[in-house]
């Protein structure tokens, strides 16, 4: 998911709508905005579909007045799958001291346990979302201000959270102690206002200046006069940012941890070419997510780069479509092979990841149908063998190709001439860790590749998941 918040300018919701549009790649099912205005109070609009189809309508934006607003773009990981407007964020609740609204990127690993406890004590839930727990915990806290209550609430939750929240007058941003999901601070004009955003690409769209990242374990509270208070609600631990943000999730034009996401992806391709060279005539990306790595692979290997596959710009990301049936069709609806380019060639196909293997299988068929002589897959991440419980929608373990097959078995299953994945060390090097992965204290979260979960997924363990 993507989160965004603005304080300062008149009609902050208009800025939020633009920001959410730039974060659309992080969630395409639904979006929402909450704003506050001294006369109109809190207002909220939550809609299915793209930001551009909803939050461009003047009739809707007029209902979201005020100098403070937050927003969210959603794809479902926690809670009930599929469509329910009650699960669309931001969530808003009135309680003593005026109430608050909250938008959350990530996933809480103890939400089911908390929910049971809260319901037993009388809380009335309105959604199936893990995030709603935070609102109820805030409502029950005895602390004397809303930011203090938020601290209280967040000390009870476990898992991954980058949160943007608002009171009637203040904008707040928090990252979990490991800093699994991103969150950055930007400035509008010369002190006209402040922005919190999942990614820097959504600062660029409104012309805001990138100031800094919210640090892992940090909470910022921004007042209407522009003052920023930085708090440390949690015991400090060594950060473990999601390495998959670098591989796939973030937009390539964003800057994460001082690094260009594009450059990291290109460098993964360079590492792949060194680790897994092959004789071939053409390096082709699987668009769009494989493109920077393919550029790096071609450059390092000296094999010509070409766009052998064209993506239909009017389709979304395949994996963000939540049902398997749509995902299966999605590949053909979305990608087509350029026969004139691949015919008679030995082709290296570079993609970011193999999850279920559906995409790779279809693409291999399409490339061979178009007359390619050989197909070699090069994957810009290690085999995805474990589900993510921190906010990325991977299927259950049994559906992950790499959970049940070796690399050679996967190659045979996909029916390709060769299949190689970048190593964990290669990935870490590409992401700026010159010495590779520190096995004692890994610098990133890489649980979906290594099975080492930095936060025990306790709800899942209670249901029998074995780590
Ligand atoms: P597959 O067809 O192997 O299930 O999905 C792989 C494709 O889905 C990749 O091309 C990639 O762009 C996209 N994808 C990336 N990350 C994820 C993820 O976490 N979950 C899923 N289901 N698909 C992903
Ligand atoms: Fe990111 Fe994978 Fe960790 Fe999930 S498990 S937070 S996708 S690195
Ligand atoms: Mg892809």
Automatic annotation (TrEMBL):
Residues 1-225 form the Glutamine amidotransferase type-2 domain. Pathway: Purine metabolism; IMP biosynthesis via de novo pathway; N(1)-(5-phospho-D-ribosyl)glycinamide from 5-phospho-alpha-D-ribose 1-diphosphate: step 1/2. It catalyses: 5-phospho-beta-D-ribosylamine + L-glutamate + diphosphate = 5-phospho-alpha-D-ribose 1-diphosphate + L-glutamine + H2O. The active site is at 1 (nucleophile). Its EC number is 2.4.2.14. It is an enzyme of class 2 (transferase). This is Amidophosphoribosyltransferase. It comes from Sinisalibacter aestuarii. The gene is purF.
């Amino acid at each position: 998911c993507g989160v965004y918040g603005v304080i300062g300018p008149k009609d902050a919701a208009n800025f939020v709508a633009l920001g959410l549009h730039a974060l659309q790649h992080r969630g395409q099912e639904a979006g929402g905005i909450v704003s506050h205005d001294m006369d109109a109070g809190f207002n909220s609009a939550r809609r299915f579909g793209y930001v551009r189809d909803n939050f461009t309508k003047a009739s809707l934006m007029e209902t979201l007045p005020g100098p403070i607003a937050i927003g969210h773009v959603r794809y479902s990981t926690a809670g009930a799958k599929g469509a329910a407007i009650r699960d669309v964020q931001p969530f808003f609740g009135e309680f003593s001291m005026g109430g608050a609204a909250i938008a959350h990127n990530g996933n809480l690993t103890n939400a089911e346990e908390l929910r049971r406890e809260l319901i037993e004590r009388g809380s009335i839930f309105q959604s199936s979302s893990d995030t709603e727990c935070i609102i109820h915990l805030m409502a029950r806290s005895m602390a004397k201000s809303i930011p203090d209550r938020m601290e209280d609430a967040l000390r009870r939750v476990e898992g991954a959270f980058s949160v943007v929240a608002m009171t009637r007058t203040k904008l707040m941003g928090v990252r979990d102690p490991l800093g699994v999901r991103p969150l950055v601070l930007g400035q509008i004009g010369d002190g006209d206002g402040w922005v919190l955003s999942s990614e820097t690409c959504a600062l660029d769209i409104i012309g805001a200046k990138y100031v800094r990242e919210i640090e892992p374990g940090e909470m910022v509270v921004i007042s209407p006069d522009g003052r920023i208070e930085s708090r440390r609600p949690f015991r400090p631990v060594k950060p473990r940012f999601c390495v998959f943000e670098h591989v796939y999730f973030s937009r390539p034009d964003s800057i994460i941890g001082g690094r260009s996401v594009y450059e990291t992806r290109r460098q993964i391709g360079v590492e792949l070419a060194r680790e897994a060279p092959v004789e071939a005539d053409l390096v082709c990306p699987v668009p769009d997510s494989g493109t920077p790595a393919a550029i790096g692979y071609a450059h390092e290997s000296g094999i010509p780069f070409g766009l052998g596959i064209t993506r239909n710009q009017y389709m979304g990301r395949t994996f963000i479509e939540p049902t398997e049936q749509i995902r299966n069709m999605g590949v053909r609806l979305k990608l087509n092979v350029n026969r004139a380019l691949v015919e008679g060639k030995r082709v290296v196909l570079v993609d970011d990841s193999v999850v279920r293997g559906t995409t790779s299988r279809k693409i291999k068929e399409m490339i061979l149908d178009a007359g390619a002589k050989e197909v070699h897959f090069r994957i810009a991440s290690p085999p995805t063998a474990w589900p993510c419980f921190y906010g990325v929608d991977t299927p259950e373990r049994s559906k992950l190709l790499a959970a049940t097959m070796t690399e050679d078995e996967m190659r045979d299953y996909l029916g390709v001439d060769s299949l190689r994945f970048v190593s964990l060390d290669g990935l870490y090097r590409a992401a700026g860790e010159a010495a590779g992965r520190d096995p004692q204290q890994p610098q990133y979260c890489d649980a979906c590749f290594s099975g080492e979960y930095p936060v025990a997924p306790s709800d899942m363990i209670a249901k029998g998941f074995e780590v």
